[in-house]
Amino acid sequence: LTTIGLYARRRKEKRELEQFTPRPIELRSDEIVSGVTGLIGNTPLVRINSLSNALGVEILGKAEFLNPGGSVKDRVALRMIDDAERFGYLKPYTGSRIFEGTVGSTGISIATIARARGYDTTIIMPDDVAEEKVKALKALGADVERVRPASIVDKKQYVNLARQRALKFGEEDAIEASEHAAQPELYELKTQSESILVSAHPDHNNRSEEPTLAMDRRGYFADQFENKSNFDAHFNGTGPEIWRQTSGRLDAFVAGAGTGGTVAGVGRYLKSLNEDVCVAIADPDGSGLFNKVKHGVMYDRKESEGTKRRHQVDTVVEGIGINRLTRNIEMALPILDDAFRITDAEAVAMSRYLVKNDGLFLGSSSACNLMACVKLIKQKGWNEGKTVVTILCDSGTRHYSKFWNDEYLRHANIPIDLSLVEDLLQRD
Ligand code: PMP
């Protein structure tokens, strides 16, 4: 190219570039968050277009799968760790270790935050939980122990084991530590369930008491089932966010209950501002909550006699359903207006329906929740002007090996039949 040719080309390129004038933007400094915990919460509410259009009722899902740890449990893990630090049960970078018994989501959230705060994590979980959760935990550096599913009265049940490991860790520290270190106190936590549960942290009801542990290196049993920080995360976070996002205009809140923290915290917050908000639970196959809400008893004896159902929730849905009363469930029971039993086939149908019609790829408990929203709306005969809010707890990516595995469902005799949703949407 000659110099003139080169010059002409540059001018042409410049002219072309001038066509792309950047539009002026508002400069903001409040959009940078501090570390991974800054990404937790403040999730959007998403309108589920297919269901809302079909029923004429606004169905809004809190997009909790957008949390950095991938689920609603980030809020709970953050609150439990924050509170533990505030009350002196945990101190960052002391070699302290957090123990938890969980089907996965809470463990992933704890492990995520633990890494950012300088703690180690031990997660004990049943061995029938979807494999991808174990992979995520290991990638996050958690020590994972998988045990056979067992009843809550069994010492080897995963929550009980997590408690024991935390205590043992504390005892070992006491031996290692020099004389000035105090022996960690053991605290007893009695629940409504038959077992006596020993906890490595004081009863969270009595928070005014100063912790008496003197050592810095501790074993901390997070205990999401009994820990009131779980409730607080939703009462002070998720609930107010939903109220703000809907300007208080909502008629019902629907959620499944695993520990009960979400439905108790959000439900109580919403009812405290408007007692007419209907609070209902979505309860999967094999869980006792439906019977508890409808008939006052946790399980139907006839149905459960001679089967494992009494203590285990026998469903492909992970994260919700329970057969015992925990503190967080007890906080929820007085405010529950209704319950909807959701079969595995219905949850599966809803999940496939949502991908087909909305491009929303959700986890099993989200699908259960949305199925319960539809059932509630049909039962009430609601139409225009009503709004129902639910929780989209996690995404389908956590469920490839079971709930989103067609082969697995075939073996488990669970049909993939979208008409279970479509018929419900059409019938009048
Ligand atoms: N969905 C998923 C995926 C979960 O892991 C959990 C918690 N176990 C829930 C829903 C239920 O939430 P909560 O424990 O607050 O009842």
Automatic annotation (TrEMBL):
Q: Which PANTHER family match?
A: CYSTATHIONINE BETA-SYNTHASE (PTHR10314)
The organism is Crepidotus variabilis
In terms of PROSITE patterns, this protein maps to: CYS_SYNTHASE
The name on file for this protein is: cysteine synthase
Record-level GO BP terms: cysteine biosynthetic process from serine
Stretches assigned to the Tryptophan synthase beta chain-like PALP domain: 36-394
Q: What is its EC number?
A: 2.5.1.47
Q: Keyword set for this entry?
A: Membrane, Mitochondrion, Mitochondrion outer membrane, Transferase, Transmembrane, Transmembrane helix
Instruction: Spell out the subcellular localization from the entry.
Output: Mitochondrion outer membrane
